[in-house]
Amino acid sequence: MNDKIDIFYAMEYINIIGNRILKVWITPKYIFAAKVKGFTSEYTGISFYDQNLAIHPLLRLEPKAYVNSKEENKYSRFFFEKMSPQQFMRLNKENFVIHKNKIKRIDYTKKKKWGMGNYPHTGRIFIKTEKNEFNKKNNREFIIIADQNIERIMSILVKNHEI
Asked: Who contacts 26 (Cβ-Cβ below 8 Å, separation ≥6)?
């Protein structure tokens, strides 16, 4: 990665039926994941359109359409290559940080997640790691929303994941 910061957007399920949208930064040492939108829903064309809940049909393939720009802007002034997990966690208690040297396994599938209906997503990435004060789960599932290159994201994640 040559100290370049790579970014992708994902959905994470919370407590079986809830979800949230994450912006994820991949640095040489860490994976920073920030909540940039709470619950979101697929626009069916039948229910009334609510821009705070559903994505407009013309924007469904654009990852940034799923983001609350006010939430995302909180992170625009930070240099992630110099940020510590402690600093990042102070920005939102729902954020998490994965230490890349604690990753045990990274897998992916292009298979759609059951229950997502026609919600546009290009697959899922699974990270098995150790729990710690900055990451409360052993297993993370990132649902890659909209039109993003899951193979590129995987190659960046897998490449030198142990520093």
From this structure: 1, 5, 6, 7, 8, 156, 157
CB 81 within 8 A of CB 27: yes
pLDDT for 16 equals 74
Kindly report, residue by residue over 30-44, the tens digit of the pLDDT: 999 999 998 776 655
- Residue 36 tokens read as 């940039």
Sheet with 105-109: strands ordered across? 96-99, 30-37, 18-26, 6-14, 139-145, 121-128, 105-109
Rounded CA gap, 159 and 27, in Å? 11
Look at residue 60 in the predicted model and tell me its pLDDT.
84
Alpha-carbon distances, residue 56 vs 12, 41, 53, 62, 94 (angstroms): 20, 11, 10, 10, 26
Residue 2 has pLDDT above 50, yes or no: no
- First-to-last alpha carbon distance for the chain, in angstroms, is 12
Structural tokens at position 131: 């729990």
At residue 69, does pLDDT exceed 60? Answer: yes
Q: Which residues contact 8 (CB under 8 A, 6 or more apart)?
A: 24, 26, 63, 142, 144, 148, 153
Longest dimension (CA), the chain: 49
